[in-house]
Amino acid sequence: MRVRLTSHDGGGNGAVLFRVLCCPDSFKGTATAREAAEAMAVGVRDAGAEPVVAPMA
Question: Are strands 50-53 and 16-22 parallel, antiparallel or unpaired?
Fold first, then answer.
């Protein structure tokens, strides 16, 4: 799920922020749901968006 949010910092720069929901199930035998969600969050942060971590299991 991706939500588009416009910055309301008063600067009028029109910056657009993205919040990305990271909610995987577990990767059986590889990673727990929390570990998978945290790994996804790293990529989301690197891309300049704000991750919301909510593992399913």
Answer: parallel
